[in-house]
Structures are given as C-alpha cells and as structure tokens.
Design brief:
26% of the residues lie in helices and 22% in strands. Helix 3 crosses helix 11 and helix 12 runs parallel beside helix 16. The longest helix is centred in the middle third of the chain and has 21 residues. The structure holds pyridoxal-5'-phosphate. The site of pyridoxal-5'-phosphate has 13 residues, from helix 4.
C-alpha cells in the first residue's frame, strides 16, 4: 500500500475504534450507504445547532433569514462538490435519489407523455419510471445502447420527448457505465434527454460536471451514500433542460407566488430559479445545515474524492483477487464473481469498489445467501445479500427468466426474505462494497472468513463410529417455555408433566407482541427476552414472571397472570409469529404491559394463544426429515449444481410431513436434544478455544442423556424414528434448523459467536445448520392424558436404513 494511503488508513482506524463503539472490531462492508457517521461530524453539526438559531426559511425573522442565507451557500457548495458551474446548473434538494428520479418523471409526464429507455443495470427506482411513460424500452446491454446511439436522429418528426436513464455505477456489482453517453445522446438525438443515476457512483468517485456540454441533463444522487449523514438527496439540473421539469402541473407551498381558490383556479408559479419551482414545501433545512458539516468533515478526513477513489480501487482489486483465488480441494472456485471487468478493479473507470458473488460448496452446490448473512453477522461483518433492488442486473447475471422469477414469487420469495428459489439457481447475490473508511484489514478479514467457512477442512466433520445402543437413555430434564422466546422453566424432578398434542403443557402458550406491529418478539432481535423468567405455579394457578437483570441486585420485580382465566373470543388481536398471521388474546392489564415494556425497552404486550383454536387461532408444525437423515441412496440427487432443497412433495410415505397442531413454538410440538451431542459439540468448541454452550441456548423441551456416559453416542438422534419415554410413544419429525439465536447467553443476554460458528462447520448439511430433533406425542386418540417425568427411561427406535 502506498504511504499516502497508509496515512489516512491509520486515521480511519482511529476513528473506527474511538468514535464508533458500535463498529469496534466490525468489518464494515456495506457501503450502499458509506456510513461515515463520524462523531466529529455529529459534533460539528451539534455545535452549529447550539450556536446559531435557524428558523423555517419562509419569513423575515433573523433566524429565518439566517437559514435562507446558509441554504444558498450549501447549495453552491453541493454544486461545487460535483464540479458543476452554478451558471449552467441548479441543484434541487430532495429527500433521496429516488425522489430526484420521480421529480424528473413528473416533469416528463406533464404534457403529452414521453418515451422512456433505460439500461439493464438500472436500480429499481429508475425502472419504475417506465410506468409513467407512454412507451418504454430496457436496453439489455451496452452494445444495444451504442447501437441506438449510432442511429443519428436529429430531424425526427416525433414531438414526444424521450428520456434515457442509466446508472453511473451499477448498485449490484459496481460496474461503471460510460459517462460519455449523455454527450452522445445530445449529439445524435432530437428532443431526447438524459437522466444519470449517480447514487452508487458518487460515494467512491468524483462526479465531474465541469464540461456542461457533455453533462447529463439531470443527475440524481443521495448524500447519505457519501457521508452517511444527513439523509438528503439532490437532483442536479442542467439549466438549459430545466423547462422539461418546471412544466409539471403540481405546485406547493414554496413553489408559487400567488394562488386563488374561491372564484377560479389561478396561480402564478415562482420563476426566479429552478430550485424554487421544484422544491415543494419546507426544505429539510436542518439536514441541509448538516450537509455543510459533512462536506467539511469529509474533506478534512479524506482529502478528496479522487483520493478515496484511488484508495478504494486499490482495496477492491485485492478483494477481487483474494476471492477469485479461493479454491476447493478439487481446484474448483469457491466464489462465482459477477463482473464483466476481470482485472479492471484497479483503474476505477469501468469498475467501482464492489464485489458481487455467490459461493459454491465443495460439492459444487450453491450456498444460500441467507446462510452467508447469518455467519457474517455473527462475525460482525456487515454486508448485503439478496437482489439488491437491481432487477435487470440480477436476472442478467443469474440468468433468471421472468417465468422463473414469477414461479419463485408464487413459491414465496419476497424482497428481503431468505427463500432459496427453485430451478437450481441462486436468486440473489452477496455484495461487499468498500468505501472511504474501509481498510486492508477489512479485506483480509473478509477473505479469511470465506476461506474459514466455505472451504471444507478434512478435520471439520468428524466421523462418529460408535454403534448406537437402543437403551440406557433417560430423561435428564424437562423444560417448558411458557412465553415464546423468554427463559425456560425447568419442571421439578418429582412432577409428572402432561404432554399434549401441541407439546408439553403450558409450553409457548404466551408471547410478547410489539404494540405497534403485532409481531411476536423473538430473542433474535431482543436478546434481553432471555432475562424474562416465567415460572408455573400450578397450586396457585398462576404464571409468575420475574425480570432478572444480570449484575444488578435482584429487585425481584415480579408479576403474575392467571393460568386459568376465561378468554373471550371478541378480544383477540391480529398478530404475526414469524411470517404467519395468528389471532391471540392480548392481556389487558396496563401494569403487565408496563412490566414487559420497561424490561425490554420495547413497547409490547403479553398475549395468549391457548390450545384448541381453529383457523387463525391455530397453527401447525412444519418440521420434516432432512436430507442428512435419509439413507444415502435415497437422498435426492441432482446434478445441476443447484441447491438441494427439500423436495416439495415427500417422495415416500415415511418422509411425510406430519402436520401437528402447535401453539407458538416455531416448528413443532416438542424439541429434544441429546446430552451426548451437546458434550461432543462442547469438546469441539473447546478445541477452537470458544465459549462452551449451555443446554439452555438450544431451548429444548426434553434433554435425553445416557445413564452410562461411556455408552453415549453423539448425534445418534438423527436416526431416531420413535422414542418411548416412560409409557408414552413419540414420533420424531426431523432435525431442528438453527440460527444465530443459539448465540444468546441465556444468563446474561449477551451474544457470542459460539456455538453457531462450530455448528456451522460440523453440523451443516445442504446449507443449513442443525442441532436437536423435533418430535411430537404419538396420538392415542385423546383417550387418556399422557404424562412424562424426569428420570423416565427412554428407548429409541431407529429408522431403517
Ligand atoms: C441507492 C441507489 C438508489 C436509490 O437511492 P435512495 O437514496 O434509496 O433513493 C438508486 N440508484 C442507485 C444506483 C443506488 O445505488
């Protein structure tokens, strides 16, 4: 690295450590917003807010005049930032790049419509303009654009204006598109205007509009992508083309001089400057002041955009080289990188500092993005996955046909969910973006991360050779989780506990729902739920709940609710558990609501979901046998290099998904873990110097252990078909898929990276990480109540292979 760059890397490190406690040790690779939220920026802004008084810029008070004056200065500064001459250009403040794009579309649609053409690499916000156009066309490649540009059409008779839009940089893979197109359009086409989406480009490149002849007519950008703060965007308008925008019909406070309403519809628009005619309502004037601080701090810290560009191009090349050199044992590449610019990462002309890719595992199968996301977040690596709001780029690079996208949509794929899609193709990518604050360590951390998790080491999956024995097992403990995602309550050893169709009695019968959204809360987002400790007091007929804050003298905050209260069906409220709509009974006591709200710091309500409901007051299990639990020859083979998704319909009767009623548990009535597997896992964690996992993190209902530890076999539960516990028979429903929630320490609510990291290396099958088994009580037709207790003998019946 050149010394010049090293210097400011040190600076960046200092900022990262000292000024962003949140980013301490983080690898920040999602610069879709270059989150340079430097304390110095906020401080500078705060100082200016405290020193000066700014008023709404519409009146004659000194505070108002001060705001107006400063806005003019910042507007000029923003123009200068993109080297635009204020004689030739005006700048309209908007909330983001999307708003800038909409403002252009609004102008073009005002009279008799317009023709619209856009490039394949466009962001969704640019694609959406087509819905307002009379005709529209998507150019699928640069060649198609060049071809269109080569047809000189200066004397055409078409009076309808045309708008050609494209991104300066693809937000999907960072490819930079030719900036010369704007000049070429002007040279070859009559009545045709250009809209450049510079939102992704400007965070790591110098946008240069100094040659106004060649500049786009309209340029959209978001400042938060450059500075992190403030949330503000701009439309830079070439004055000679501004008439296309000021002809829009709408007017607002701020854009008119006078309006009459009562006798006729008359108004006089402002006509002094372009921005006055286009800035609707009160300007976000505090944001505009903050932008001034951002220009200042950014410049002091990083020097110039040219410097950032050099720095990020250098890092991007290293990142690209590192990722493309990773190989599996058989020599196959680990990362499929989506770029048309191999080897051009260094020059910054054709390629921005972004690498978009997918990973294949040692079998050549695609790794799901959601899985990468989970592991990355455990390692405090910030990146982005999915289709990134770039529909054309994604379908081009992943070779997704519209029919396939529609089928994936019908099967449940949505923006932001982790649906893998069918057709053996990925539906999204992993994107890592470098920005001003990235450094070489971020790059190596990330390459090491991919190597660590996606190149299989021979030592990772230890073969277990012991023969399972059928008996010698017993129930070590029974645990009930009355409130979904809160702490478990251990059933005392001498009590026979009832087992129902839905699971252990009182298990997951309550949940906490967000007061605003109705969404059931989970430890994944609210780890402090682990500190809420419910307790079942059958004698008093109460569910007692205590909130236990670690390292605080227990002030024994406790509330209780009745276990037996009558619930009236008229009082249910719509809620959501995971992505499922349910109707639950909210608890009406303000006292109880306050208890949970203050414990978690989230507005939430206790709600009950009793057994025996129907329709949206009932739920069913989704657990099923997983591929790794099937005999090898029966595993679904597919040679398309695809995901090995579970079959949509079970191939044989013994693989049927047994649909059982459940309450608020995620997937099945009962979850069981084997002590031997936990001990084995902890040995492996210990070898990696990690923090051992307690049984509590797996949130099992039944822990089974071997009476003679010498005969215990880890992961034997994968092959169990049935268990007899005491007198009761249970059916095994399949392995339990795990997420990072197992990393929440149930005593302190702190997050660790174990046991997920070790599980991801040792218990990952078909892209998913498993630990523990789902099960349910085998129905006895409701003829009698079933009970089990701690110490009961457990007999395992193994699936036939
Ligand atoms: C981020 C981005 C947008 C959208 O920006 P907003 O600030 O969300 O309006 C549009 N185009 C590109 C290329 C982007 O990167």
């Amino acid at each position: 690295m050149s010394p010049e760059l090293c210097f400011y890397n040190d600076d960046v490190d200092n900022i990262r450590e000292a000024e962003y406690p949140m980013l301490k040790g983080a690898t920040y690779l999602d610069h879709s917003g270059t989150t340079l939220y430097a304390k110095s920026l906020v401080q500078k802004f705060a100082t200016s807010m405290i020193t000066d008084l700014y008023g709404n810029p519409h009146s004659g008070s000194s505070s108002s005049i001060l705001a107006t004056k400063r806005i003019d200065d910042v507007r000029l500064r923003a123009l200068q930032f993109v080297k635009a001459d204020p004689e030739e250009f005006d700048l309209v403040f908007v909330s983001n790049a999307t708003a800038a794009i909409k403002l252009v579309a609004e102008g073009f649609r005002a009279e008799n419509g317009f023709h619209y053409a856009y490039h394949r690499d466009s962001h969704t916000s640019l694609v959406g303009v087509r819905e307002l156009a009379t005709t529209n066309q998507c150019y699928g490649s640069d060649e198609m654009v060049e071809q269109w540009l080569s047809q000189v059409d200066q004397n055409g008779t078409d009076e309808t204006p045309s708008l050609f839009a494209y991104p300066a940089q693809s937000n999907m893979n960072g490819r930079r598109l030719p900036l010369k197109w704007s000049a070429q359009v002007r040279g070859s086409k009559k009545n045709t205007f250009t809209l450049l989406d510079a939102a992704a480009f400007v965070s790591t490149a110098q946008l240069d509009l100094s040659n106004s002849e060649d500049a786009p007519d309209f340029t959209a950008l978001s400042f938060y992508k450059i500075f992190g703060f403030p949330d503000l965007g701009a439309l830079v308008v070439k004055k000679s083309s501004a008439h296309m925008l000021t002809r829009r019909k709408y007017f607002a406070g701020g854009t008119v001089e006078m309006v009459s309403c009562l006798q006729d519809n008359w108004h006089a628009a402002k006509d002094q400057s372009i921005h006055e005619q286009l800035e609707d309502g009160t300007l976000p004037f505090h944001n505009i002041m903050a932008l001034d601080s951002a220009f200042e701090v950014h410049k002091n810290l990083y020097g110039s955009m040219e410097k950032i560009s050099k720095h990020t191009a250098y890092l991007a090349e290293k990142l690209y080289q590192g990722l493309s050199s990773l190989r599996h044992q058989d020599g196959q590449r680990v990362c499929k990188i989506y770029t048309e610019n191999e080897g051009n990462y260094h020059d910054g002309l054709r390629q921005g500092p972004v690498v978009a890719f997918n990973i294949r595992n040692a079998d050549g199968k695609w790794v799901s993005n959601a899985e990468v996301d989970k592991l990355a977040s455990i390692r405090n690596i910030h990146l982005r996955t999915g289709n990134l709001c770039n529909p054309g780029g994604i379908s081009y690079h992943l070779k997704l046909k519209t029919s396939e996208m529609k089928a994936n949509y019908a099967a449940g794929q949505r923006c932001g969910n982790d649906h893998e899609g069918a057709f053996g193709k990925p539906t999204g990518v992993v994107r890592v973006s470098l920005g001003a604050m990235s450094n070489m360590e971020d790059v190596t951390t990330f390459i090491d991360f991919i190597r660590e998790f996606y190149i299989e080491q021979p030592t990772d999956k230890e073969e277990i050779t012991q023969k399972p024995s059928r008996s010698g097992l017993y129930v070590e403990s029974l645990i009930v989780y009355p409130i979904k995602s809160c702490a478990g309550w251990t059933v005392p050893p001498n009590i026979a506990w009832e087992v129902k169709e839905e699971g252990l009695a009182w298990d997951r019968e309550w949940c906490l729902v967000h007061t605003g959204t109705g969404q059931a809360l989970s430890q994944k987002r609210y780890p402090r739920m682990a500190l809420i400790r419910p307790e079942i007091d059958l004698r008093a007929g109460l569910l007692r709940i205590r909130f236990h804050e670690p390292r605080k003298v227990d002030t024994a905050k406790e509330i209780s609710v009745s276990l037996t209260e009558e619930l009236q069906s008229s009082t249910t409220r719509d809620s959501r558990v995971c992505e499922e709509r349910v109707r639950a009974f909210p608890c009406k006591s303000q006292h109880i609501t306050d208890f949970f709200t203050s414990a978690l710091g989230v507005p939430c309500n206790l709600a009950r979901f009793p057994a025996g409901g129907s329709g949206s007051t009932s739920r069913h299990s989704k657990a099923h046998l997983q591929q790794h639990q099937l005999p090898r020859k029966r595993r679904l083979e597919d040679d398309t290099g695809s995901f090995s998704t579970p079959p949509p319909s079970p191939p044989s009767s013994d693989q049927e998904i047994i649909s059982r009623p459940i309450l608020l548990s995620n997937e099945s009535p009962i979850l069981c873990i084997n002590r031997a597997s936990l001990d084995f896992l902890n040995t492996q964690i210990h070898q990696r110097n990690g923090k051992a996992a307690s049984a509590a993190v797996f949130r099992a209902n039944i822990i089974v252990a071997a009476s003679d530890p010498a005969s215990s076999v880890p992961y034997v539960e994968d092959s169990w078909k049935n268990l007899r516990i005491g007198k009761e028979i249970f059916e095994m429903l399949g392995s339990c898929r795990r997420c990072s929630m197992v990393c929440v320490d149930q005593e302190t609510a702190e997050k660790n990276e174990e046991p997920f990291v070790t599980l991801a290396k040792t218990r990952r099958f078909d892209n998913k990480v498993f630990f523990g088994e789902h099960m349910c009580h085998a129905s006895n037709g409701g003829s009698r109540k079933a009970f089990i207790k701690v110490g009961d003998v457990v007999e395992a019946f193994v699936r036939e292979f």
